[in-house]
Amino acid sequence: MFRTNSNHIQQDIFGYDLSRMNEIYTKIQETAEYCFYETIFSNIDEKIFAPLFCQDNGRPNAPINAMVSALILKEKSNWIYDHLFKSIEFNLLTRAALGIFHLGDMPFNEPTLFNFQNRIKDYHTQKGINLFESIFNNLTKEQLKKLKLKTNIARTDSFMLDSNIKSYGRLQLLIEVILRIYRMLNKSDKKLFSEHFQKYTVQTSENYMYQIKGSDLPHEFAKITELYYWIKSNF
After folding, report:
1. What is the pTM of this model?
2. DSSP string spanning 18-32?
3. Which of 72, 83, 92, 120 has its Cα between 20 and 30 A from that of 100?
4. 79 with 47: CB under 8 angstroms?
5. pLDDT by residue (tens digit) across 170-180?
């Protein structure tokens, strides 16, 4: 018998069948994302990142294992930040990979993750210590055991991850300078030169970075280098 679907009209996104949720959770445990949760997320030593934070005052930090895992997952999947955060909020497999098993939980937001990245970058610059290298060194033995059976999770290179974090920081700084130069122009010059600046002036430097994949960084540096050369030649 044919009938139309009208169930969507009365929406209850938090209503669920407990037996169905248990069935879904059982299926999740068989996925590569859950293997990521067991192999990487569950073995991250958060104390490695303790030097990035004040020990005796300030607000508690967001979950380190979730942020580190999110950055690894982003690079592994070559996602932009927007895709990462949509996946964290709405994709059950991504949430499982990051140890988020309760609907409605969101362990950190975009500015918190960017701030965490900047702390890692600054620490490496000041101390010469790649914290991601320490993480992967601790994970290697456990990974080798798991990956003999589940080879669908590749080992992410800690140096590439660390390098991309630094590159994101450099690119955002270069864009911020472009925005400040543009704000210094008078109205007629802004109108005259808007075509050259338009790519960067429609949003903040931080929002621009949310749209960049790790694989896009070389191209982005090439484009902004051209603009810097144009500015030097014309001002």
Report:
1. 0.77
2. HHHHHHHHHHHTTSH
3. 120
4. no
5. 999 999 999 99
